[in-house]
Amino acid sequence: MSHFNLKSLTFYGGAISAVLILFKAVTAYGESNLKAPTDIDGLYRLSYTQQPGCSKSNAPVLTIQQSGIYLNGSLLPTPTSVQQPTSAEESSLTGQMSNQHLNLVGKVPKSTLCTNLSQGEASNQIEDNSPISVRIQSRVQENTLEGQISVIGIPKFIEFTAQRETPSQPSKDSTNH
Fold first, then answer.
1. Which residues, including other chains, have CB under 8 Å from residue 138's CB and lie 6 or more apart?
2. Among 29, 155, 149, which residue's Cα sits nearest to residue 93?
3. What is the per-residue pLDDT for 2?
4. Of the candidates 77, 39, 71, which has an alpha carbon nearest to the alpha carbon of residue 137?
5. Which residues fall within 8 angstroms of residue 141, CB to CB, at 6 or more apart?
6. Rounded CA gap, 98 and 56, in Å?
7. 65 with 41: CB under 8 angstroms?
8. Which residue of 103, 123, 171, 177 has the lowest C-beta tally within 10 Å?
9. pLDDT score of 70
């Protein structure tokens, strides 16, 4: 009884060759066309032109958490020091990143952004901390975001730029015992 049948050897040789060729083609495609998204995870201090009637308060901070192309974020009032939000400050913005553009949608407190786009409402809007729906669209360039914030239901938008900030590291004691 012969264990090496010519038909079996031809079949298995062809199957192994086809798998190797397919593997090589998929690997070449992946290396040339599939790229990991840019890492934008972090804190960004927004700078934008204040709306008429708004107080000149410190600019809010956009916190972005990234998992691949999926993003979660928070738009928070300026903290006293650059730090990650606490667990009480849940992410209120969600979105995706595609081709160096990010798109976040969600709710933020009115006091975070001055949404006074009509005269005489500034004091009410600053005191009212109820959430407003916003859309943040931005282009990513290295450690800078450039884009606009739209308040849903208001035709005007706020143009902004934001620089990524590095969180302050706790100082390490140089004399370890």
1. 101, 102, 145, 146, 147, 148, 160, 162
2. 149
3. 62
4. 71
5. 100
6. 33
7. yes
8. 177
9. 93
DSSP state of 1: -
Mean pLDDT of 66-76: 90
pTM of the model: 0.66
Residues paired with residue 64 on neighbouring β-strands, in sequence order: 42, 73
Q: Amino acid identity, residue 140?
A: V
User: Is residue 63 a contact partner of residue 74, using CB atoms and an 8 Å limit?
Assistant: yes
Query: How far apart (Å, rounded) are the C-alpha atoms in residues 171 and 9?
Result: 67
- Within 10 angstroms of residue 136's Cβ, the number of other Cβ atoms is 27
Which amino acid, one-letter code, is at 58?
Answer: N
Of the candidates 87, 90, 76, the one whose C-alpha atom is nearest the C-alpha of residue 162 is 76
Closest CA to 64 of 36, 88, 107, 94: 94
Q: What is the pLDDT of residues 84-122, one digit of tens each?
A: 544 444 558 999 998 889 999 999 887 777 655 443 343
pLDDT in tens, 10-64: 999 999 999 999 999 999 999 998 888 888 889 998 888 766 556 555 678 889 9
